[in-house]
Write a structure and sequence with these properties.
184 residues, mainly alpha, Endonuclease Iii, domain 2, 2 domains, 11 helices, 58% helix, 0% strand
């Protein structure tokens, strides 16, 4: 890991302060390239303020017209409903431990463990999150330890034990290593 950190250099993580925006963005970006996700997010955000009331007011066809699949349109609206009726207390998430946040946000349709883990890292700034099912992390970790392919989830979890309590930092370096073509 030290050699990867040396190759990548300093990473600055800018958190998304608004939990509704962060979770909405995570839903929009699921299973898309970073570039495609950014394009669709830009179109989605241009529809109006990314706020629960506004998102719920949009028709599904309008959401689809900016590039959201029917499923993702349903998911962001379910998130908005949960936020509006108080089933998902966005303002209290920061006070929960990591597993508590995961349990809370995964009650929203379309938010699974991986999305919750991304929320923990990129919105709440939690330092010890390792998304063991993330294929990019598994690929980069396999490269890091000299394997010809990705590690499986169990192997990544075992490797990640050495990075605790800074698994999020290790994840950021592994992802950046992939982005820069250092790790393969």
């Amino acid at each position: 890991m030290a050699s990867l950190i040396g190759l990548v250099g300093t990473i600055k993580l800018e958190l998304t302060d608004d939990p509704f925006i962060s979770l909405s963005r995570a839903i929009v970006g699921q299973q898309l390239s970073v570039k495609a996700a950014a394009t669709i997010w830009g179109r989605f955000a241009a529809l109006g303020p990314v706020e629960p009331e506004v998102v719920l007011a949009h028709e599904t066809d309008l959401l689809r017209s900016v590039g959201l699949s029917r499923a993702k349109a349903t998911y962001v609206q379910d998130l908005a409903r949960h936020a509006l009726i108080g089933e998902l207390g966005l303002e209290r998430l920061q006070a929960l431990d990591d597993e508590g946040v995961i349990q809370d946000v995964t009650r929203v349709k379309g938010i699974g463990r991986w999305t919750a883990e991304m929320f923990l890292i990129f919105s709440l700034g939690r330092p010890d999150v390792l998304a063991v099912d993330d294929l990019g992390l598994r690929r980069a970790a396999g490269w890091l330890v000299g394997c010809s392919g990705p590690l499986d989830s169990t192997e990544l979890a075992a490797l990640g034990a050495a990075w605790s309590p800074y698994c999020s930092v290790a994840s950021l370096y592994l992802w950046k290593g992939l982005d820069r073509g250092i790790a393969s």
